[in-house]
């Protein structure tokens, strides 16, 4: 894909004429007095610039002699946007690509927590920008003990879980989301 480089081409993008009523191309019909559709420079410039935007966004260097550059660019863009990644285990993560960045969901189980203690957990992968929320719930010990588990601190790489309860000691499930 390369911009037109004919000797008659304009050196800068001309201002297009005002938009008219949207329509469709026709070959015309001389017997019915219907003229063929004129293909204007502004329409061709629009198509050219749309295609150039795809090529450059895909990281492809425009070339006059390569005839699959839009295809190459689309492949690169789809690979970037559909780069799901996951580690689906008891401790794991899921990376979800989106137009505004990659969201990451992470989960796991802490070590055993005793009454009135805190414990650090390390996320399976670091959040590139920030952990925006983290939650924890106790792994039910199967007793009627009163307990409370909460996340006291979060960072890109981990969290601190605190707990208060009577007894017994047990781990906590945790969940974090970020980007």
Automatic annotation (TrEMBL):
InterPro entries per record: Gp53-like_C
Region: Disordered, residue numbers: 1-37
Composition skew (Polar residues), residue ranges: 28-37
Organism of derivation: Caballeronia temeraria
Full protein name: Putative tail fiber protein gp53-like C-terminal domain-containing protein
Domain Putative tail fiber protein gp53-like C-terminal: 103-179
Pfam families found in the cross-reference section: Gp53-like_C
